[in-house]
Amino acid sequence: MLSHNMDYFRQKPLELAKTTIRLDHGYHPETIQATLEQVYPGIMSKIQFEVAAKLSKPQKAAQGRTGFVPIAVRWVIERSNRWVERCKNLVKNFEWTLEHARTKLNLCFIRLMVKRLATYSSSQSSKPQYRQDGSGV
Q1: Cα–Cα distance for residue pair 56/96, rounded to 1 Å
Q2: Hey, where are the domains in the chain?
Q3: How confident is the model at residue 5, as a pLDDT?
Q4: Burial (CB count within 10 angstroms: exposed 0-12, middle 13-18, buried 19+), residue 71
Q5: In the chain, what's the furthest Cα-to-Cα distance?
Q6: How far apart are CA 81 and CA 101, in angstroms?
């Protein structure tokens, strides 16, 4: 995916902070770095890799945890994926183009935000309204 978006990194000024790409232990930063440098040799001056910390069994035991322990950043992504799975038209991807698939994802998240705003707005309207002088409406 990064190799398809190299124009962004080529145009990105060196004065800006490096883009951090977070990886878990299923990826190998050295391999990814070598592949990206073949496509764009100056890429590592604009990006950096950060491998998420993996807790050992003794560290988990010290925290009183067992099994899968979610990493905060990764948990946000997995939660977002779960929200997308709730959109029935995205359960199976029948889209012919990437643009159509991206549009459906955008519609899914718009739907999610509208539902949240509606819930927030209805919870606010049930509360008593007060004037600036403190008396009820």
Answers
A1: 43
A2: 1-65, 70-125
A3: 72
A4: middle
A5: 69
A6: 14
